[in-house]
Amino acid sequence: MGNCVSAEAAAAAAASKEIDKALKLELKATEQNIKLLLLGAGETGKSTVLKQIKLIHGTGYVDEDRIAYRVTILTNIITCAKTLLNAMEVLKIPFGFDPSTVDVAQLQVLDSMAGADDSRSETGSVGEGEAGEDEPKKDVVEGQLSKHDDPIARAAAQSYLDLLNTGETQVGPLWDAAAIIHASPMGFGIGEPIPKNVVDAIALIWRDSGVQYCYRRANEYQLIDCCAVFLNDLDRLCHPTFMPTDQDILNSRVMTTTISETKFKIEGIIFRVFDVGGQRSERKKWAPYFDDINAIIYLVAINSYDQICFEDNSTNRMVESLNLFASICNHPMFKKTAMIIFMNKIDLFRAKLETTLISDYFPTYEGPNDYDNGSEYFATRFLSLNKYEKKIYVHFTWATDTKQIKTVLAIVNQIILR
Predict the structure, then answer these.
(1) How far apart are CA 329 and CA 386, in angstroms?
(2) Which residue of 116, 153, 231, 354 has the fewest C-beta atoms within 10 A of its own C-beta?
(3) What's the predicted TM-score (pTM) here?
């Protein structure tokens, strides 16, 4: 009798498990899934947004993650130092060059005198009434610098060549530091610190006025955004016991060459977010992820209006972003897909406006060189590309600011779930 009861109980328990399993499968089938795609050209901050999503809605970063990011950060530091030194050679900027000591007015007077001499030598003399006539101006290609000459850059190059001719360019502590940095390996093992002599060398060149001037011309070469943040904090980041904070991880840079997926749940809804590489060579991998997309977040580096693409060193990054957005926004597959634009890196945009005119690169811009007018101009440029006249949402973001991104993501969730 007992055996019979035990058998019946076992059968009932098995049946109950099957029912529970079926209910779970049914619940999973009815559970809403949102598929979200992060798109944009290279260096726009897609991976940083994904890091923020992991911090805000995911599990965050465990010690194993932080140890791996420590290697990334140290590699970023070496990369920045080497990039700056290479740019010094390409741009012909000598160590010790101080742009504040350049007499721009005197240079301009000499230029005008030289120009007048050239004109006389070519035409014999300048007739009355002809002196004020300029040659016809060439059309400015959008995204290319319209200024034809920078007297300070030319003064730097002349100083560089003068030192080169005298053989004085490769002597002294700064050149010793440069040699140490050039010889330093790019990679580091887990737990391996940057040698102290290399850290000291990086700190020395970073304090140099010529290197600082080279840094201010970073739009002319490829320098990762975290350069100043990391090189200004060498003592902490290069300490043997350093462990990255969340902010350090957000500031770090690794080029995306694989498709990564992050899942998180909000109020019972599963969000699947895909981050894909933005460089041209990575875009051929995008197509398989276009099916069943609920929304696209398209990232634009709004500070990139004076920068060139990593791929060809000639195409303006903002122009590249505009062209890519036009092809995505107007793709028939996305006719009814929610489209959200993150005009990202507003912190760097504000800083750049203090020194770089938008109109030098985008001649159709006629407003004051300030944040409100400049940001509205670029947002309007993107929105004007929408041929389907569907609703496109624009948000101005600072991807390394967790509080700001948390607020924006909450708004994005509401948009997607409407």
Answers:
(1) 6
(2) 354
(3) 0.80
